[in-house]
């Protein structure tokens, strides 16, 4: 069955289900997806406190000289009350005393022994951090399906949460097929080829937070392939590359079908990568990618990444795009839905020159990918395109002015 890219992604969304969960310490949770929503048990900050080292004062004492004989430090639990005509010295983070209306920073007062002269204008509530202004009690600060990052960990820790329920790690089995393939750590003959796809998928899958079993390559016989597959059926995702077109030894799909694979699509309207197969054997998801390295990479990024997101329980499992412009003019044959890799400098997308499905080197430069409908045979420089980011972050060799400045 030939499907379009959106149909393929819809089928993935329909057929792939999130994995079960496990409870882990928050320190080890980065990149994992939460299975529960987390609601604040208490206000953050827990109590009204000072945002400055300074003096707790009454607003009506502005411009006068007041008496100060007491200090409150962060960590104190003050029972004192501030009265008119007085100030209480207070440190950043310390609970404000009863009756305090504002904090005046230390640099804004004149001190003479226990007498403090206050500035003429003091705003009510100045430099007081209110209880719950950061996270109010009972608000949900982390939602089911969100990915944990260092800053989520900060919110969890600030609520005293030690363990959270996350989706368990996805187990991936990878192997390449083809008699010509040898592992990269062996010596090879001139007619042989190193298996670059399996280490590529291994690395990318780890980057995306999965556990990986790396099964090098199986010989080009149906039996050998079937044996390899049968030994990895406990994996959540099985990725193969090669043996999916119409060559004499292209029996990847047959091997999986013999093992009970239900095929959801077996060809996608995309160049490169048309012969991509997506199926399931029970709860195990199978993707047979083409052998051509760049074709397999493009389809890994489009389909396997979507599978990983859905399986890990993310609520944003669908691809999003960045709208940008073409950095240079593009001419292509057209007539086919085409995926093009390119670089992105934050301002424009520039296709990588001379990218072919069988190549390896263009992939390492790719920041993103654009998908073009068959009717597009020409894109002029500066024309608008939507890009699917692959692994883009904005870094430069030269110093860039990072500050936004006023311009008329
Ligand atoms: N008559 C036709 N021939 C081909 C068609 C077609 O429709 N009709 N489709 C072409 C397309 S499109 C692609 S893509 C490839 C897909 O081929 P396979 O998936 O069967 O892959 P192989 O033939 O096994 O290998 C293709 C190519 O990639 C190299 N390769 C394979 N595995 C790896 C690996 N793990 N690491 C590095 N390189 C790998 C392999 O040596 C071949 O050069 O079929 C076209 N043919
Ligand atoms: O479409 Mo194939 O996948 O050329 O590389």
From TrEMBL:
EC id: 2.10.1.1
Originating species: Sulfurovum zhangzhouensis
Family: Belongs to the MoeA family.
Top-rank EC class of the record's enzyme: transferase
Superkingdom to which the source organism belongs: Bacteria
Keywords: Magnesium, Metal-binding, Molybdenum, Molybdenum cofactor biosynthesis, Transferase
Catalytic function, reaction form: adenylyl-molybdopterin + molybdate = Mo-molybdopterin + AMP + H(+)
Its biological purpose: Catalyzes the insertion of molybdate into adenylated molybdopterin with the concomitant release of AMP.
MoaB/Mog domain ranges (all copies): 173-310
Pathway: Cofactor biosynthesis; molybdopterin biosynthesis
Descriptive protein name: Molybdopterin molybdenumtransferase
Cofactor(s) for this UniProt protein: Mg(2+)
SUPFAM superfamilies: MoeA C-terminal domain-like (SSF63867), MoeA N-terminal region -like (SSF63882), Molybdenum cofactor biosynthesis proteins (SSF53218)
InterPro entries: MoaB/Mog-like_dom_sf, MoaB/Mog_dom, MoeA-like, MoeA_C_domain_IV, MoeA_C_domain_IV_sf, MoeA_linker/N, MoeA_linker/N_sf
